[in-house]
Amino acid sequence: MAGEADQTAAATAAATAAAAAATAAAAAAASTAAATGGDMGAAGLLLVLQQQQQDFLLFHTADLMLLLFFENPTEGEEEGEQQVLLLLLLLQEQQHQQQQQQLLLQQQQEFLFLLLVLLLLLVLLKQQQQQQQQQQQQQQQQQQQQQQQQQQQQQGGLI
């Protein structure tokens, strides 16, 4: 068990060293990019690489802890192993539910957008109908006025 703990510690140290080397390389790339005028892109690159380093360390540390736990079970740890497996299943279920909620939210947003477009089209159609009605009324009024003028001219010519 002590040998496995040493192996785990060595693996963790190696992972940490690799992540630190990746960060140093990213910092060197960022400083080079900053010197050539690409400072905003370099800062973003550095931030992304630092986040990747943290994710890498967190994932591999948890992975190594689980390996140690499952490779060296004692009588009391068998129950703990089942609890850890249950926790992992619960985490997976929670992630699945979050993905489903995000998908549902996206679908709701798409539906609301389509509804908004439909309402906008209805408003435009209503405005067009009102304009057509106004034009028809104006044409009818003009025709009535022309007819009245013609009648007045005919009556004036008869007298």
Characteristic terms for this protein:
elongated, mainly alpha, 159 residues, single chain
Short description:
With 159 residues, the protein is mainly α.
Sequence-ordered SSE layout with sheet pairings:
Layout: H1 2-35, H2 39-71, H3 75-158
Helix pairs in contact: 1-2
**Total count of strands:** 0
Radius of gyration: 38 Å
For the report, how would you describe the main beta sheet? none
Integer count of domains = 2
Q: Kindly estimate the percentage of residues that lie in beta strands according to DSSP.
A: under 5%
Mean pLDDT metric: 76
What's the helix count? 3
Elements, N to C (H/E): HHH
Find the structural class using helix and strand composition. mainly alpha
Unreliable segments (pLDDT under 50, ≥5 consecutive)?
none
State the end-to-end distance.
Answer: 129 Å
Oligomer kind: single chain
> What is the general shape?
elongated
Helix fraction, binned, reads over 70%
Transmembrane segments: 111-127
Coiled coil: 122-155
Keywords: Coiled coil, Membrane, Transmembrane, Transmembrane helix
Description:
The protein is mainly alpha-helical. It has 2 domains: 1-75; 106-159. Helices cover 95% and strands 0% of the residues. The protein has helices at residues 2-35, 39-71, 75-158. Helix 1 (2-35) packs antiparallel against helix 2. The longest helix has 84 residues, at 75-158. It is elongated, with a radius of gyration of 38 Å. The model has no long low-confidence stretch (mean pLDDT 76).
